[in-house]
Design brief:
Elements (H helix, E strand, L loop, with lengths): L17 H14 L7 H14 L4 E4 L2 H11 L5 E4 L5 H8 L4 E4 L22 E7 L8 H11 L2 E5 L7 E2 L2 E2 L6 E5 L12 E5 L4 H8 L4 E3 L2 E2 L10 H10 L3 H19 L5 E3 L6 E2 L5 E5 L1 H4 L3 H10 L30 H9 E4 L7 H21 L1
Parallel strand pairs: 2-3, 2-4, 4-5, 5-8
Antiparallel strand pairs: 1-9, 6-7, 6-13, 8-9, 10-11, 12-14, 14-15
Helix pairs in contact: 1-7, 2-7, 3-4, 8-12
Bound molecules: ligand T4K.
Ligand T4K binds next to helix 3 and helix 4.
Length: 380
Amino acid sequence: MEGLTKPVYVTKPLLPALDGIVQRLEDIWESGQMTNQGGQHELLQKELKLFLGIDRLELFNNGTIALLLGLKALGLSGEVITTPFTFPATVQALDWNGLTPVFCDIRPDTLNIDPKKIEALITEKTTAILGVHVFGNLCDVERIQEIADKYNLKVIYDGAHVFGTKSGGVPVANYGDMTMFSFHATKLFHTVEGGALAFKDERITEVLRMLRNFGITGPDQVALSGLNGKMNELQAAVGLEVLPLVERERKKRQRLKELYERELTGVPGLRIITNLEGEESSYQYFVIEIDEAGFGCSRNDVHDKLLKRNVSARKYFYPLCSGFEWYSGLQSSRPEHLPNAHMAVDRTLALPFYGALGEWEVERICSFLKQLNAQALIAQ
Ligand code: T4K
């Protein structure tokens, strides 16, 4: 493939027309309320509840802080079973709560935490399971809930990649005790930086609101050790302009995904991490897996060769969280317990995927991958 003249990145933020943003900025200026649950914040919260089909949702300044405070509001202690194949934020939210992650291997097909391996990791210190709906595919929510019910554990989902996802018509946030959404600029829906928690128990609404506002409970009272987790009015204003664009963006991504699938299905040693039957996906990422033996060259080679042609694919989620130095003493970090996670982290590659990406660009990327594969196999 000839190199692309301009760099193509893994994603591009959805940018609403500036007119709408300017109008909202004028409203904010007029009100003088820049943050602390102003009008834009309240409106976005209401619209997101409708869009996501959930009753309880609180907004935060980013997804990491949302998760961190959500775990605190649930009053967890001890150990939390989670996946090593995720963005660092998932386990860092545990760290900041003084919780110990217990790493569980993943399913090789969905790359999500493997419920068959969870029970063996439960001890008297376990208080929760923290699953991640990786790349937009749902965890085995029903099986995980059965295990949690049996051992009286909380279930939390990192839903950074599943904005608007439904399974059999059921919105993703209906599963577990709590789901975190990230509204970072690289996400399908965004507020530049931002995040939210959807949760089941009405009683923690007030706790979450206190926690994200320094633990302040009244004019003269600070009852909890909180922090600043508030979404400001400018973030909320951007979100209100982005939200109406989400469905169209999702449809464009669906078309691009179909094109990628048409072009890449059947390429030896290349597997597409596709969404599951009955799932209405967020189409957050388009991810392939390269098996060096079948494809002819490694994932790292593919990544580097694409980069030379101006295509910036990403090795999400490299390195595994279990490989972080500060977890080296954990029994569950040992590679022999995590064979599928180690395989995935060496093989997965997120290809450019966003609505504004041209079909011709997808075709170029695919023909390059096929050419690379053919050349590598001839050379063997
Ligand atoms: N849990 C999971 C499973 C997550 O994936 C994440 C975040 C979190 C928790 C935490 O949520 P937040 O606290 O972030 O709300 C990006 C994002 O920064 C991060 O939010 C995201 N996951 C992660 C998967 O991706 P990087 O290091 O890949 O970002 P960056 O800056 O390299 O962006 C990727 C590409 O996007 C760039 O090459 C160009 C393009 N881009 C990016 C930005 C920020 C733009 O075109 N414009 C932009 O403004 O982490």
